[in-house]
Amino acid sequence: MRLLVHDRLLGIGDDYWIEDEHGRKVFLVDGKAMRLRDTFQLKDAHGRVLIDIHQKMFALRDTMVIERDGEGLATIRRKRLSLLRNHYRVSLVDGTDLDVSGRILDHEFAVEYDGELLAVISRRFLSLRDTYGVDIVREDADPALLIAVAVCVIHLAQKEREED
């Protein structure tokens, strides 16, 4: 499954659509402005909230939290002792971890579980400007969760670059 994300140099408060390979709107990333912490909602094409994403308050490192129906789903933060600056860990509430690595700010990275590829995020094969693809490799993967992970790691990497 390939999803196309049209992201015009986003900030908090910006909204953008994610389409399937046929141009149908599948998800809306709704940035919430005027909040104390960075907050997004991932909605379906009918406006129903699928996932809430927000910055964790009072964390030692920048951390994003993903929730579904008010319940925690995952926590995302940059790996501590990584030689690669762009390496993130997604800790799911069931105790499993996903690894995200690659050139995050270039939108060229992968999401893996236990060495198995789940999704590839890339601009490489797209001719549309300000668009990147999310290719979901495993059929049983949760597309909404993988989109939320991509939104979070890109947001965290952009914040880190701004603070440097």
UniProtKB/TrEMBL annotation:
SUPFAM superfamilies: Tubby C-terminal domain-like. It comes from the Bacteria. Pfam families: LOR (PF04525). Belongs to the LOR family. This is Tubby C 2 family protein.
